[in-house]
Amino acid sequence: MKHWIEAARLRTLPLSVSGIIVGSIYALSNPTETINTPTEVFSWKIFGFALLTTLGLQVLSNFANDYGDGVKGTDNADRVGPQRAIQSGVITPQAMKKAIIITSLLTLLTAIILIYFAFGKDNFGYSIFFLLLGIAAIVAAIKYTVGSSAYGYRGFGDVFVFIFFGLVSTLGVNFLYAKEVDPLLILPAISIGLLSVGVLNLNNMRDQESDKKAGKNTIVVQIGAANAKVYHYTLIITAMLLVVVFAVLSDYNFDQYLFLLAYIPLTKHLITVYKNQNPKLLDPELKKLALSTFLLSILLTVCMISLISDIIVNLFLGGR
């Protein structure tokens, strides 16, 4: 069990749910024209199964990465980061393959239940669309490193992370509640997507040399270490700016800028990356950036709700 928990890489899980939290609380704090109160738009069932589905996708992605890089030999003695399960021999490729299949099926099941709670027997078109989206997310999580056409080996991993853990996570879950897309929510969705890509970029910066030897052509391998740092600054700073723009366009009051506290660890992180000369020392920064993104999502959702205590009381007394 210890080895499976390590293979699931729990430190990545808070990052994966950041978009779910922001998209859900935005729905809670912004009733639509047809839904007038927070308790009408928010559903604990949707929230719970959205979290389960996203966590399932993240664990599936981690298992698949362990398997794909392990069987390809990418995870070898040259790898800078912590040893993975197949690399160290504590889990066999056959066992990991079974885990990938089981996790895929469980994630698909939670996705189907989530879709049912969101749309019921109505909105058949929406149900089919989100079902296809869920299947696409599962396939994408596996194909990142698994197979001869693994897109992570061609530098497209950043695109997958941005789309599924940024746009789809935030905007998708919000649509499950509100049944419409709020253009303003696109800004924090992009921000979370960029910060998530930042975590992947850190991982690739740390593993640049071993990836290059193994033929894993990540963006970092393609553009080099110096440009990868510039790319990283661009990701993080753009994400920070877009959240501020979101707050301004949302007419936040002064006390609703509490989320700026999350910019302190993000700024410290940027300084650390700027000064770094040894890729191995970037490994602790993955956890710090992931937790900083999670902190930003929590603080931002608190700022979205002006009378949060009243809404929480209403949810527990009259919510679904």
UniProtKB/TrEMBL annotation:
UniProt keyword annotation of Ubl conjugation present: no
Alphabetized GO MF terms: 1,4-dihydroxy-2-naphthoate polyprenyltransferase activity
Key words of the record: Cell membrane, Membrane, Menaquinone biosynthesis, Transferase, Transmembrane, Transmembrane helix
Subcellular location, principal: membrane
The EC number(s) this enzyme carries: 2.5.1.74
Membrane topology of this protein: Multi-pass membrane protein
One Pfam family here: UbiA
InterPro entries tied to this protein: MenA (IPR004657), UbiA_prenyltransferase (IPR000537), UbiA_sf (IPR044878), UBIAD1 (IPR026046)
Membrane spanning stretches: 12-29, 41-60, 99-119, 125-146, 158-178, 184-203, 230-250, 294-317
Catalytic activity reported: an all-trans-polyprenyl diphosphate + 1,4-dihydroxy-2-naphthoate + H(+) = a 2-demethylmenaquinol + CO2 + diphosphate
Places the protein is found: Cell membrane; Membrane
Pathway: Quinol/quinone metabolism; menaquinone biosynthesis; menaquinol from 1,4-dihydroxy-2-naphthoate: step 1/2
Family statement drawn from the similarity comment of this UniProt entry: Belongs to the MenA family. Type 1 subfamily.
Functional description taken from the UniProt entry: Conversion of 1,4-dihydroxy-2-naphthoate (DHNA) to demethylmenaquinone (DMK).
Entry protein name: 1,4-dihydroxy-2-naphthoate octaprenyltransferase
Organism: Flavobacterium quisquiliarum
Gene name in the database record: menA
